[in-house]
Amino acid sequence: MGSPAALPCLLLLVLHLTAGGSAALHYVVTSPAVIYHPHAATLWVHLSDLPQPAQVTVQLQRAGGAGNITLLERKVQEPHVHLNVTFTAPAPSKGKEEIVDLHVSIQGDSLDVSQKKKVMLRALEPGIFIQTDKAVYKPGQQVKFRIVSLDKDFVASDKKLPLVFLKDPRGNRIAQWRDVSPRQGIVDLSLPLAAEPALGTYTIEVEGRTRSFSVEEYVLPKFEVTIDIPSTVLEKDEKFLVEICGRYTYGKPVQGKVQATVCRPFMFSWVIYVPEQSSPSTNCIEVGGQTEKNGCFSTEVLMTSFNQTNGRLQKRVQVKASLVEEGTGLEMNNTKSFDILPEIYKVTFENTKDFYKRGIPYTGTMRLEGPGGSAPKEKQLVLLVNHQGQATKHSFLTDTLGRASFKLDTSGWTSTVTLRGQVNELANTQESSGSSPHYESAFATLRPFVSKSQSFLQIHQLESKLPCSQPQQLQVDYIFNKEAFGTELKSLDVVFLVMAKGTIATILRKELPMEAGLRGSFSLELPVGPELAPTATVLCYAVLPSGEMVADSTKISLAKCLPNKVKLAFSEERALPGSALRLELEAAPRSLCAIRAVDRSVLLLKPEAELSMEEIYKVLPNFDSPGSIRDPEPCSSFWRHPPSSRTLPMRNRDVFLHERRYILPPPFWENFQVDAYKLFQDAALKLLTNAEIRTACEEWFSMPRGMPTVESMSPTGEVVLLSSAYPTRNRMSMPAVATRMLDVPPSQEEPPAPRSYFPETWLWDLVPVGEEGSAEVPVTVPDAITEWTAGMFCTAPTGLGLSRTVTLTAFKPFFVELALPYAVTRGEAFTLAATVFNYLRQCLRVRVTLAESAELEVSETVGGMYSGCVCADEARTFRWDVKATSLGEVNITISTEAIKSEELCGNEEPVVPAQGRVDTVIKPLLVQPGGILVEKAHSSLLCQEAAEEVSLKLPENILEGSQRAHVTVMGDIMGNALQNVDRLLAMPYGCGEQNMVRFAPNIYIQQYLEKSGQLTPDIRAKAQSFLQSGYQRELLYKHADGSYSAFGESDDSGNTWLTAFVLKSFGQARAYVAIEEQHITDALRWLQKQQLKTGCFRSVGKLFNNALQGGVSDELSLSAYVTAALLELGVSPTEPTVSLALQCLEASSTDDLYTQALLAYVCGLAGREKQHEARLQSLVQRGVSTEGLLFWQRKGKALPTESLWAAAAPAEVEMTAYVLLAHLTQPQVSSADLSRASQIVRWLSRQQNPYGGFASTQDTVVALQALAKYATLTYGSNGNSVVTVTAPTGSTQDFVLDTSNRLVLQRAALHELPGLYTVQARGQGCALVQVTLRYNVPPPPNTGTFELRVETDPKTCRAEASARFRLLLRARYTGERPTTNMAVIEAKLPSGYIPDKGSVAELKRQKLVKKVEVQTDQVTIYLDQLTKEEETFVFTATQDFPVRNLQPATVTLYDYYETGDRTDAAYSAPCSSEDDNQAKENF
């Protein structure tokens, strides 16, 4: 017998084999067209009437015969064989896909069957889903996320993830994790966000799969506003209902005032506005009122309320609503809209096939959809059936779902049949109210299923969505031709193949006895489980004795389900805040369950971001069958493209119109035939058989009535294309609605403004359930009164499971809420408001008590206690007049108790709840002294037996009670910096250079602790967190060319100095945190471009610190700095860029101390020992030595006489630190050098501020780098020592230091002020002792370097001045320099006021303003510089909380790098006193 290639016209090799003249062998072998590695695959082998024993072999044969895989090899003796062969899919030999041959061989004495088909081996990558704990985050919060890799059966993979990374909105990779190992399939990671990250959308990416979340500024409100309006309104409608409701997150109604604007917008995009015509800006009406007890306000709006005469109106109505809560004045908003539609009724076909089987009834459903998606019931539908030009009409009534099922007799059908479903317009018009609805019809074209003997199987369609894990009954109809059946057959095997997720999931057989007759039906139970979800194809076939195969298939859709049945429940559905509960878990044994519980507001914010069954199912791949393995067409190209088609002049999208019939182009013919073969092909199955599965080409093209044509059935006489090649259901009769469609505007609805719901996460845990498959987790309900939404997924060997969402309402029958200002100044008064909410169904009599406090003065007229009735679903506000008398954080405690009383509340007797009878709320209030804070620090490095006196003096103009002092003692010179590494400066961190002071010191501290063996996991985690945060922030200041500048892209160019600083810091940080290599490469490449021919580096961009005269602004010192940065990065001194730079530096000379110190350090780094030693000797001669301290200072820059306190300018600290680094960078540090270094360290330690930093940013970075290097060289496990602090009265306090607590910051308050304190150290080792003194004074007069005037507009208390006023800051520089460095204005606001966001946005656009930072009570403005010319900066303050007797607020202006250059001013709000407010009322 020849090979299949010998018969090019045939798709299948048809073999009729006989043995001794007996019945012919029939064989059927089927396999998935695509075999997925590494999963199990199934092959079906069916042999019947085998005349003799035979050897059956099935192989996967690779090209060239290398590596063939035998799937089945068996000697078969019996005549009928059914084999279900399961095997593990082999991997493709190369890449992810490989095409191989599936070869079937049946060999016997007189049998020689050989057939092959192409199949594909495809490596299936695991699907990945990513879950975040929230959809949106605030700056500074921690992003928590989980990653799970799943195979197609939803079993989690324990394979390592090679790379996980997170990108910011600019595409920078801000974090990455390599070779992450899952825990039972779950990877659990987190990342802290920077305090000032880039706002926008962030992306987590793993293996090509992404998950996004946003970082935004959100405030979590107490309630949401909902707008209930119709989804659509018909053009004929005269009015519609608007209902606006307020609901707290725990579900209770909000009492308050509603204000809504209802608008029908103009179609601006479609018209040209002519000024003389009516204004297009508004077409709105205002509605509003008080909410009812149910928290809702409703009203009817008449359509005639809008300007209906203007033809330029959109077919849309928008409602903008606000609700102001009673008692607090808190306002929330929402926006919603609906469309105004014509009355359209649309008919569609459901559950229909695009072919029929003659003799078996054709079934389907018509569905009627009314306006807005409604399902009209008892409407008359008409089904028109057209066969060979003869039309029959059937009428039906819709049911309650708008559906009408039909069943059609097909026994008289022989060719193409068209169906049209439509509304009985006449009957419907009689029911309508005089308007003219529009109707859309449904069309379908049915082709005859091809069978030579007219024998058929047909599976009844199952319901649209089957429940999971519930067996289904398959109902099958059949018709057999007597001749094809023969006379000797006693029974017929009907085989059912269920194809799901790319494999044969189930195989069933039904033996059909012949006594049942040639026509009938039977049923079969189909097991249904998660392995079939979400869709499966059921294909049944039988081979008749004549050799013809009859077949049918149906697609089934299942509810999405998972193999692991998971359940999550709280032990109670409602609980009091703070109460203990149990979380009950159930899952398959040995499951690991990932729990997540979040505030309901998370879901209100972004419900689509939730992990759901739909999200999990999205990880499934597409189980497609590619064209590369498609079987060749059975007919030659002549039959696919007959000559008549080649000469047709095609037009109108390749469709030729001829006598109102369509002659369809060749691709139509290729797919026209519907037969058994096509069913296997559509099910992605490869079929190897000798059964007849399709008719010959000649028969195909000589079908009755020639090639298929479809007549138009449009009632308007328009031509409608009804393609037989592609299903044409649900086609629209366009002419009926085309003219109306022009009225609908093209603009889409604007998305509503983002909700101000900031989500909170309660539970985020991984819990194993053990062998029992259950666990209980004790949890404590948070204090928030809200609804918590919890969910869980579990991984197990059986697969993944997802629980349904459960809720817990944290709720009290009644509770109290407190409204406070953020902060007040001592002496100011305000009204404290406590609102009591009652959500019982009965009245309560409550006693509300404000706890006595020495820090508060309460109005005597009221006292501290109230009592009164609060009835069902009501709220009542109680108020006290309070005056702040003490400084610091004052706790305000309100206690509310339901009391038993015989006194009635109205007509009701008050009740006392069994649970939650008392509610107590404690809220802190910050009471500030006002004025200007003065902060002084005295630091000493006391070694062995040493003592000193510290005099704490106070000025005469100190604000009463504002003085405070403390002493800190540590056993390590790096200890203070380590404790305060996130706040080394009492200054803002708003630009690219200042941010690095939070980044770089972490590297030096970790290097020191690592080398000294003191780096604990906790310290490492803390430092890495700060590095990660600083890295994120610094990327905000990167330019597209790879450089960095103080304010990023808002600067004209990058900055040479800052780019070098960032480059070396990123390079050194690689040892501790993931840094994307591209950022280092980009910065290095940019710096290399700035190198001059001389080898020095060009100064590009503005450097803010111009105090370093001849310093960084000078080319030589800049080049020295860049060279040092490259050497610290690890670049070799012989590398061309560095080598050329060193040549330039060695050839230059300078008298500037700062540059000399820097050059000495560079020589040390480069290993140039002679130059290094010479430069050090020169520097030592120019140092200033006093009282065992050694430092360097600029010419004419003498230190202040009061040397007890840290007072050195940043430039002095920085150059002295460079000299220290130069001493410590030698290959061998001599004892003389170390002795000199210890003198420098003692001076540097004295300059430390109370936070472990220094005066400004760069001096802090360099000094800490130098101190860390010194600490590393001198570290030793010294013995114990004791530091004794003696107060003026003689009382003492001892601080014991040993190796176990040398990094612990020990602190004690110093209460005797003013006074002379003595500090003494005894024992071995050194101690870092720091005394800090703080007090407040009124703003001093101008110092002469700046002039600052502060004004308010209005200046006096009138009109709306108490609600809002403008603040005008007029500033100029009056010092000796032409301009300042970067200048900073810190403007504090009066108590109860906050900055207006709109005015701050305007301020950012003002001249010289580089950045604006907003705190609750302060606005910080970064200025490029200030000159001798006065500049004015303006923003608006709005009242957030009324405060009386307002004290003046202060504004401070200073040079960031010369912090001694500063001035302060005070101002008062226009309505500061009771007299002002009285004058306003009179006004």
Automatic annotation (TrEMBL):
Subcellular location: Secreted
Ranges of residues in domain Alpha-macroglobulin receptor-binding: 1380-1467
Signal peptide: 1-24
GO molecular function: serine-type endopeptidase inhibitor activity
GO cellular component terms, A-Z: extracellular space
UniProt-listed InterPro entries: A-macroglobulin_rcpt-bd (IPR009048), A-macroglobulin_rcpt-bd_sf (IPR036595), A2M/Complement_sys (IPR050473), A2M_N_BRD (IPR011625), A2M_TED (IPR041813), Alpha-macroglob_thiol-ester_cl (IPR047565), Alpha-macroglobulin_TED (IPR011626), Ig-like_fold (IPR013783)
SMART domains found in the cross-reference section: A2M (SM01360), A2M_N_2 (SM01359), A2M_recep (SM01361), Thiol-ester_cl (SM01419)
Alpha-2-macroglobulin bait region domain residues: 457-605
Keyword set, alphabetical order: Disulfide bond, Glycoprotein, Protease inhibitor, Secreted, Serine protease inhibitor, Signal
UniProt superkingdom: Eukaryota
Domain Alpha-2-macroglobulin: 761-850
Family of this protein: Belongs to the protease inhibitor I39 (alpha-2-macroglobulin) family.
Protein name as annotated: Alpha-2-macroglobulin-like protein 1
Originating organism: Aythya fuligula (Tufted duck)
